[in-house]
Amino acid sequence: MIKKDLVSILDIRNDFSEIVNMGLKFKRSRYQTSPLVEGRSMGMIFEKSSTRTRVSLETAMYQLGGNALYLNPSDMQMGRGETVEDTSRVLSGMLDIITYRAFSHENVVKLAKYSSVPVINALDNQEHPLQMIADFMTIAEKKGEFQGKKFSYVGDGNNMVNSLVLTCAMTGMDISIGTPKNHMPDQSFIEKAKKIARETGSTVTLTDKPGEAVESADIIYTDVWVSMGEEKQREEKEKDLRPFQVNSELVKNAKKDYIFMHCLPAHRGLEVTDEVADSINSVIFQEAENRLHSAKAAIVYLLSN
Ligand code: CP
Ligand code: NVA
């Protein structure tokens, strides 16, 4: 049996809709255990802070009948120089699944390469695939079909937008990205997404005009301007991204029934105002709750392979 990992959202491209539907099913039967998870253990290495990802993964394992171990690298031998390769071989001899929130994407790839059990990327500098399952569950709940909807991302061209542009292209949603010219997303992700979009009949557009990005949008999405690990760029980013704040004025360009999304944590008053985050259009807490149900879907999917 070949083990499956979730390092990039593209790893689950063919099964993405099935996993989203599985998440929606878990939501309807919250305390249902899974024979695939009962008695299994998940190791969770977190190099960076987390509220949603940690709590959703730990709770998902518990509710499904397994258990989870939170592993802080500074308490592990990894923090004293044990290599990622050796850590991976040791942990996969004892655990059934490993999640890793890392500063470096290369380390997540390495952990997966040397592990004999599935590895989940719990966010790195390039992607946040777990968040995509919860986000698209939320869109399915609020908007139904993905195909033909307009998804607008406004803000920093970061790890979130890399995963979002790929997922929109995979699901046939048109995505319009509004970022300042000096904070555009990684071009290699845009190219990959454009190629997929050609196959699914959707579009990927980039602009440095926030009003244009959200024109007639069904979904407006933003994320923090300063991601974890980028603290040195705070002053520059907060200045450059100011015109990209999602506020009452900007959202006037969207469709009346648009939904506002954010992976959270939100920095209110910066990338989004209270008025938008707490508006009737905002689905941020539904989106956050869906992290639990989507975590279950990801775990069961990977353990069933
Ligand atoms: N959205 C998200 O991953 O949140 P945390 O950083 O709290 O896990
Ligand atoms: N872009 C953010 C997402 C946090 C969930 C970060 O990497 O810090």
Describe the protein's topology.
Elements lengths: L15 H13 L12 E6 L5 H13 L2 E5 L12 H11 L2 E5 L3 H10 L4 E3 L7 H15 L6 E5 L4 H13 L2 E5 L8 H14 L3 E4 L2 H4 L5 E4 L11 H7 L18 E4 L11 H4 L6 H20 L2
Parallel strand pairs: 1-2, 1-3, 3-4, 5-6, 5-8, 6-7, 8-9
Bound molecules: phosphoric acid mono(formamide)ester and norvaline.
Number of helices: 11
CATH topology of the largest domain: Rossmann fold
Secondary structural class: alpha/beta
Distance separating the two termini? 7 Å
SSE series: HEHEHEHEHEHEHEHEHEHH
| Largest sheet data | 5 strands, parallel
CATH superfamily of the largest domain: Aspartate/ornithine carbamoyltransferase
3D shape = globular
CATH architecture of the largest domain: 3-Layer(aba) Sandwich
Order of strands in the sheet with most strands: 7-6-5-8-9
Give a list of the ligands: phosphoric acid mono(formamide)ester, norvaline
Provide the gyration radius in Å. 19 Å
> What number is the mean pLDDT?
97
Question: Please, how many domains?
Answer: 2
The amount of beta strand, in percent, is 5-15%
CATH class of the largest domain: Alpha Beta
Report low-confidence residues grouped into runs of 5 or more.
none
Portion in helices: 40-55%
